[in-house]
Structure prediction request, 682 residues.
Amino acid sequence: MWLKFRASSVKEFLLLLRDRAGLAMLFVMPMALILIMTLLQDSTFKVLEEKRMTVLVLNHDADTFGINIVDGLKQSPVFDVVEQLEGKPFDEEQLKQQVMDGNFSIGIVIRENASRALRNKIKLGIQEQFPVEEGPIFDMDSTDAADTAKVRLYFDPITKSVFRQNIISALRRFSAAVEAKMLFSVYAELFYDLLDIQLKPTGKLQNLVVFEQEYASTAENRIVPNAVQHNVPAWTVFAMFFMVIPLAGNLIKERQSGVAMRLKTMPGSAQAVIFGKGTVYFVVGILQAVFMLMIGFYVLPLFGMYSLRLDNITLPALILIIMATSLAATGYGIVIGTIATSQEQSSIFGSISVVILAALGGVWVPTFMMPEFMLTVSKLSPLNWGLNGFYDIFLRNARVPEVMPYALSLLVFFVLCLLVSRFYIRFKESFL
Amino acid sequence: MDKEAFIRIKGLTKRYKNTVEPAVDGLDLNINKGEIFGLLGPNGAGKTTTLSILCNQIPATSGKVVISGLLLKTHNRELKKIIGVVPQEIALFEKLTAYENLRFFGNMYGLRGSELKSRILDCMRYFGLEGKADKKIETFSGGMKRRVNLIAGILHKPEVLFLDEPTVGIDVQSKTVIVDFLKQLNKEGATILYTSHHMDEAEHLCTHIAIIDKGKIITNGKPAELIKSEENCDTLEDIFLKLTGRKLRD
Prediction:
């Protein structure tokens, strides 16, 4: 048995070594994927963070609110403010046209008397805090009270909802600062009228709360998530499952050439051959994972990206999840190679099914962004188990017990694949 | 049934699922030890199916096969060790060299080390393939591939050799060396069962011949006796056409 197993492994190894397309699919394509996807994602984040946005502003309120909002936009690192078109002032219709034509992503119109309306709203609010018997403390009529400070926003129709929400959120921040400033100013006015005390404006009443951001991890094992830390494990799992194509293709080739039938006539060969074949691809899966991690560690920094952090990971957990993922991928290749009737069928079905399983598993889009239903479906993808195992190791410092459920799921998947292949062969043989 | 026969086939039937007519229909045949037995028949006659059952590739629907005193159904493990099979297809790995292919198949028969190496090189030399051991199969001509295909089935010196059209589609030189080798192997004691479309080749090579059609043996005997037994027949091909007709087969 050992002799046959060894012969089969050597044969499989030589076949794989001489299959340039297969080798490229197993090692070069995933390397390119890791490089391209990580670079792309990294630069997308940088663009979002660093790119300034030009906004067209029409301020009809030459008072506190209007002036402060425009100043806020001008001082923001995100916005470039345009208040004139070709050196000339413009009206709201022109602004709308400019945005509609796609010349600007956003147009902001601050309505006339917005400051007065805001000030009246504040006064009305303060008035309501005093007992009715005190009578009116500010000079205001009913039309003043009904007035509302308005800012109209025009968006280019192609802008995404996330972008719109970001703009509105920024404007709300500026607006809240102006509102606080005006509230302080009305109170100061009131203090002076009622108590004859002159309050001095202060900047110390801004940004009173400090937000500290930190990724949840233990102090000694702090791993900062980034495009590298996310992409390398994701594409490693994807690449490992792509072994389906050469493995299944190889099985079909053996069937079509008559080698499989010849082996059936030889003593105890079928099991030894499939065992040897599986072992080679299992080892290839492990080599792929090591290769991808090395790309993350050594090559990505050459392109100006972070290096994959390997210093704080639990090695036994990583070895376990790599082996389990490789076994699952091998099993999947065997089942595809058993069921498919031609190499074309196996390569098309194999590649598309891996892409679908990868999409479901969260390789392309993180699972947390998926709707509830898809989230449930994603748990059925073996790529999801492998990926979650890798993420837990690379981002949460998981140890063997934590990744064991994923490893066991992958192992069960491998056994299921072998059983399905076995039953399918028996089913097919029943037609002979 | 002749109890002395080395291969005894009794009532062998093979009916593929979803087909009306059986591919092999109650076939009875005895092959003695040391014979070169030719199983001849037109396309779809049941030759390859019979051979596939004998070498354990597909199961029979009914019937009994005994080889060397061992019942095929229950002793296939033991029988696989004494059987050699040369399929009609070139069942080799195109990307491996001739030597790597033969080493692999030799290992599958339990051969190893220097014994296997010398056996491979001897066979390759005999078949005019010396100096080609390290060349990939994909670079070989049709005749060379067929010769390697044959070597892969005889490396373990089988007692019984099943060959399915071993000389199909090759030149006269390759055909001659294969036929000579089979004669030599037979002299050394191997029993050979082979199928062919080449009537003249079978006539000169085989010690015994059976013509099969529609899954049944329609005649069976020594080539010379068969030719004598039929009127107006001077060759095996005449008998073949007389018994199986001139209608084209698919």
